[in-house]
Design brief:
Elements: H1 2-13, E1 17-23, H2 30-39, E2 51-58, E3 61-68, H3 72-75, E4 85-93, H4 100-111, E5 120-126, H5 136-142, E6 153-157, H6 166-179
Parallel strand pairs: 1-3, 1-4, 4-5, 5-6
Antiparallel strand pairs: 2-3
This protein binds guanosine-5'-triphosphate and magnesium ion.
Length: 180
Amino acid sequence: MGFVLTKMMAVVFGDKEHKVILVGLDNAGKTTVLYQFLTKEAVHTTPTIGSNVEEITVRNTHFLVWDIGGQESLRASWYSYFCNTEIVILVVDSTDRERLTLTKEELHRMLAHEDLQGAAVLILANKQDMKGSMTPAEISQCLTLDSITTHSWHVQACCALTGEGLPASLNWMQTRVVAN
Ligand SMILES: Nc1nc2c(ncn2[C@@H]2O[C@H](COP(=O)(O)OP(=O)(O)OP(=O)(O)O)[C@@H](O)[C@H]2O)c(=O)[nH]1
Ligand SMILES: [Mg+2]
């Protein structure tokens, strides 16, 4: 009875937690994004082994955000975080031209996974502060986003060090889950 009441209160007062995963190659800036979401500051990071998880609240909407290590040896276990995910945030290092094809392969492999069939995808074109960084349009083209018809997707330019572009990302996420 207590459990049912808690669940009903969660629905009425908007306490439901929406699961989000942060994926992308190592050094893309996932952990920096997570803590910029949380504290509005740039934190010092080291490569993530395993994952970090934090709750982020946007206008009474609660997100449980999982930041997953992107090193090659860890990518094979990304799928174990997919279940019940509503939003996939793919963080791209916009200066890493050499590995964009690899990012594209990882993205399309993820979208084919049955546990992500209902998920929306937010692509963060990170490190826009760096000289020579690719534009969101270039990244969209290289990732062949126009070919994705199975999932709702959105591209956002950002700089996780300053936080520029991240409030807009959170707004998009909030609007998405409220619309569903
Ligand atoms: N110039 C610049 N550097 C950034 C930005 N975002 C992150 N970085 C730097 O990029 C490096 C890697 O950032 P992390 O957040 O640790 O990267 P990660 O994607 O979590 O990496 P893994 O945990 O290994 O998968 C750090 O030195 C960050 O300070 C950005 O927008 N601009
Ligand atoms: Mg990390």
